[in-house]
Amino acid sequence: MQEIHHHVAGARRVGTSARFADVFNPNTGEVSARVNLATAADVNAAIEDAQRAFPAWADTPVPRRAQVMFKFRELVTANLDALAHMVSSEHGKVLADARGEVQRGLDVVDFACGIPHALKGEYSENVVGGMDVFSMRQPLGVVAGITPFNFPAMVPMWMFVVAVACGNTFILKPSEKDPSVPLRLAELLIEAGAPKGVLNVVNGDKEAVDTLLTHTLVKAISFVGSTDIARYVYATGTAHGKRVQAMGGAKNHMIVMPDADLDQAADALIGAGYGSAGERCMAVSVAVPVGDKTADALRERLAPRVAALRAGLSTSTDADFGPLVTRAHMDKVRGYVDLGVKEGAELVVDRRSIKMQGYEHGFFLGGCLFDRVTPKMRIYQEEIFGPVLSIVRAADFDAALRLPNEHTYGNGVAIFTRDGDTAREFARRVDVGMVGINVPIPVPVAFYSFGGWKASAFGDTNQHGMDGVRFFTKVKTVTSRWPTGIRSGAELNFPTLK
Ligand code: NAD
Asked: What is the DSSP string of 363-419?
């Protein structure tokens, strides 16, 4: 059985722990590898190694750090297919989708190639007699990222690419469900010219995470995962004096106005609701048609298409989506569909029990569609994270707007309409961090920043773009007076501009 360990000081490192977690092939349900779960001592060693690498890397001229990013971009591009295969084989998403994920990670590398520009400070000449003020952005030191299973390439790249370009050294603790691709990315970064110790990958579970959250040398923690863990990471990390950004779960609504192009809206719901088997934090899981006429027309378009969706092998080129990540997750999603039926929602398309010939032990679940879901139901309130879309009918625009606004989560939201006034009003009033207007998955491009509101994110700064740079740097402001010959006498009162 293949064993997956860690990447520390520029090389694979075998962990000291006797604890392992199973990694599955979601197509067959078989265990494909065992991943070592780091002990606190393993994590401490990685942190110390990153600390040793920090001063030289922070001192490396920023154009040189950008050159490493340019080379990394080249290497990831050359290895894109192999990386996508790795993602697909452990996560279960189909290859085309996995390629898209790696590409979105690469977009962050593109942004980081411009890091000299992003790190420029400010300068004010002669703010008062002979005195100039300037500011600079400096790296924090050793920083860490803890990432979820659903984007094992892209989410780590949101974090370590920006952090490392800013001059930090990084410890990545990826999801134990699909650990191979982050290890490969670490190798590629070293090959691109990053010194050993600049990016270390430790695999593990709560023990590894708690070590990172409490270690005094770790200055900042970036987390992406479910809300309960995000809340815990935020509370624990900040209690230990760290800067923390912690992104959590989601329940994303798509409002469909009566004037929307319903064919376009149906396309959007199929793609955003069922792509990647719904295992995306920006998946649309709630469709909100406004008015019964819109709801009936939309349902009529959706039902046959959901029923026809092909769940298939992640390696298949004609599958719409692949298996779920683990049996436990598949059972959880199926449990939510059972619950929805019990709660009184109308299960319009029921593909809970599909079987894949020859792959009976794979983690497959077909697409399901509910209608007449209400805000009181748990299937509405909680994140399902599977190929399940709920229709919640709203009488008018205000009732539709209240749904995302009153929901616990606030990651993404979309509105489909042909009316500019409605779209503008919606974007202004909706209490959600990322908004799409006729765009179902409004994940911001890499030079903007990604982040939700409410229970979808804790902390003040978002991922990547300039917010990523702000998160992974601190500002130093220097007030200087030249030439030294200027004398203003001893001033005992608090200095002012006068
Ligand atoms: P998860 O919360 O189970 O795991 C995330 C990370 O936390 C993993 O590295 C895991 O090892 C670690 N972890 C798990 N339990 C822990 C514990 N008790 N103590 C300390 N660490 C722990 O999330 P997941 O199932 O891997 O990912 C899916 C979730 O991530 C969904 O809720 C999804 O919405 C969310 N997500 C959010 C975003 C976003 O940007 N908002 C993006 C992607 C995924």
From this structure: -----EEEES--TTSHHHHS---SSEEEE--BSSHHHHHHHHHHSSEESEEEEE-S-
Give the integer Cα–Cα distance in Å for 438 and 415: 6
CB of 249 closer than 6 A to ligand 1?
yes
Residues 368 and 262 in one domain: yes
Q: Are residues 260 and 224 both part of a single domain?
A: no
Q: Is residue 373 part of a domain?
A: yes
Average pLDDT over residues 370-383: 98
281 part of the active site: yes
- The burial of 330, by beta-carbon neighbours within 10 Å (0-12 exposed, 13-18 middle, 19 or more buried), is given as buried
For a substitution probing ligand 1, which of 90, 173, 175 has the most ligand atoms within 8 Å of its CB? 175
CATH number of the domain at 102, please.
3.40.605.10
- Give per-residue pLDDT as tens, 18-68: 999 999 999 999 999 999 999 999 999 999 999 999 999 999 999 999 999
User: Would you state the pLDDT for residue 129?
Assistant: 84
Domain that holds residue 319: 252-437
Whether ligand 1 lies within 6 angstroms of the CB of 434 is answered as: no
- Are 169 and 219 found together in one domain? yes
Ligand 1 atom closest to residue 205's alpha carbon, by position in its atom list: 11
Residue 246 has pLDDT above 70, yes or no: yes
Distance CA 233, CA 174 (A): 15
Residues 280, 396 within the same domain: yes
Q: What is the pLDDT of residue 258?
A: 98
Residue 483 falls inside a structural domain: no
Q: How far is ligand 1, taken at its centre, from the CA of residue 153, in Å?
A: 14
Q: What's 309's domain CATH number?
A: 3.40.309.10
DSSP 150: S
Distances (CA, A) of 110 to 100, 105, 166: 15, 9, 14
The verdict on 29 and 147 lying in the same domain is yes
Q: How far apart are CA 363 and CA 27, in angstroms?
A: 6
| 152 shares a domain with 224 | yes
Cβ–ligand 1 contact at 211 (below 6 Å): no
Residue 293 CA to residue 271 CA, distance in Å, equals 23
155 plus 232 within the same structural domain: yes
Ligand 1 centroid, distance to 208 Cα (angstroms): 14
Share the mean pLDDT of the chain: 97
Which one is catalytic: 113, 166, 281, 368?
A: 281
Q: Same domain, yes or no, for 220 and 91?
A: yes
Position 498 scores a pLDDT of 64
Residue whose CB lies within 8 A of the most ligand 1 atoms, among 224, 330, 385, for a mutation test: 224
For residue 451, give the ligand 1 atom closest to its CA.
40
Domain-embedded: residue 498: no
Is 497 inside a domain boundary? no
Task: Grade residue 418 by pLDDT with cuts at 50, 70 and 90.
Answer: very high
Q: Over range 200-220, report the average pLDDT.
A: 98
Q: Which of 381, 410, 437 is the last residue of a domain?
A: 437
Domain count, the chain: 2
Q: What is the pTM of this model?
A: 0.97
151 lines ligand 1 (CB under 6 A): yes
Q: Is residue 224 in contact with ligand 1, taking CB distance under 6 Å?
A: yes
